[in-house]
């Protein structure tokens, strides 16, 4: 039986071309890609790796984007947080491993935010999980057996910039990739944090209606911070396994 996606291919292609032509191209966040949130004691070293959301598209500076917001959340208990944002617009999981990982500095916690470009490029769920696993193994070889948070693939079925049926097809594929990535939580010190569809309120998107705006990044950081704190507190236990 011919799949629905194959039957809709001409429509999907036309919609994809139109979206690419009409969607505003927003720049990456301005300013330094590393910084320090002041506080007491030795800073927790946070590194965030990923695609355009880590590049800060949709925010004016990294302070308003995912990495800066997450650093602020982790510093709420009074501790210092040193952060590094390693993002590239248009990158998939394999590109991040090959091009950004060599820039990674020593860290106590790494957050990985990927999946949208792997979805758009129609990568299989198996390939996405394999590429994420390669990334995790490579980063631990580089900086040690540190905890890793896998941010869930954003549910693209809620992206306002995407028309139907393209939105439905990419929404289903992004969900499949996210479910496959969640299986990596079986690895010691790795936690997958799915993004609830309800988090994607249209009002939280940037001007392009594709990337988060500052409010979207704030909500996402709040969600990731709770898991990150717990993972950091459990680090000594799982590292001894």
In the CATH hierarchy, what is the superfamily?
SGNH hydrolase
Instruction: Give the assembly state of these chains.
Output: single chain
User: What are the low-pLDDT stretches, counting only 5+ consecutive residues below 50?
Assistant: none
Query: Proportion of β residues?
Result: 15-25%
Mean pLDDT: 91
Order of secondary-structure elements: HHEEHEHEHHEHEHH
Shape: globular
Rg, please?
Answer: 18 Å
Distinct helical segment count: 9
Distance between the termini: 48 Å
Q: Strand count, sense and closure of the main sheet?
A: 6 strands, mixed
Indicate the percent of residues in helices: 40-55%
What's the CATH C level? Answer: Alpha Beta
Q: What's the CATH architecture name?
A: 3-Layer(aba) Sandwich
User: How many β-strand stretches?
Assistant: 6
Tally of discrete structural domains: 1
Organism: Amycolatopsis azurea DSM 43854
Keywords: Hydrolase
Domain SGNH hydrolase-type esterase: 48-219
GO molecular function, one term: phosphatidylcholine lysophospholipase activity
